[in-house]
Amino acid sequence: GDSVTQMEGPVTLSEEAFLTINCTYTATGYPSLFWYVQYPGEGLQLLLKATKADDKGSNKGFEATYRKETTSFHLEKGSVQVSDSAVYFCALSGFSNDYKLSFGAGTTVTVRA
Amino acid sequence: DGGITQSPKYLFRKEGQNVTLSCEQNLNHDAMYWYRQDPGQGLRLIYYSQIVNDFQKGDIAEGYSVSREKKESFPLTVTSAQKNPTAFYLCASSAAGRSGNTIYFGEGSWLTVV
Predict the structure, then answer these.
(1) Is B41 within 8 Å of A105 when comparing Cβ atoms?
(2) pLDDT band for position A2 (50/70/90)?
């Protein structure tokens, strides 16, 4: 079945550092790919998404590019802030999984001032 | 404001009790979902519904039940058959199933067995 594998955490960074969280997927066909963010004690919020190969999703300084050749959707941010401390989830959705979201395990990111 | 409302935020259950978590959305979405979140395990799908009066089991449906009598409502009952119900439960919704549709989440409900 469809699945997502993302980089295990936790990840601890200093403010203004560069952040990368790796995400690779296995799916039949051409799924849509998502990054969600979860702040402590809250639900998930959509951070960005891409619906076809070579699409780049971006939001709040975060970016991810849908790479079909490497089945990847790595999340990057050039200069993190303390407010970026959260859990980040990579996910996919497609015809082969009935358009439900299949999630990675999540990566906890802590940014220190 | 449009969104997904889950209640209660915190719930305590005694051994052997059934409890029901409420989920209401005013986004006019056809599809609704229930996920369970345990520390370090990501999110796992319990049940989902793509249309009123119809629903399907997800990956971990045992010990749970749902109903979808109205488009805007998708309550989840955690039955006494669920052996380890302590977790964070998230309700979500989306427009009708199509690749690329964003799934929106509620704020979640914490269930603790005492």
Answers:
(1) yes
(2) confident
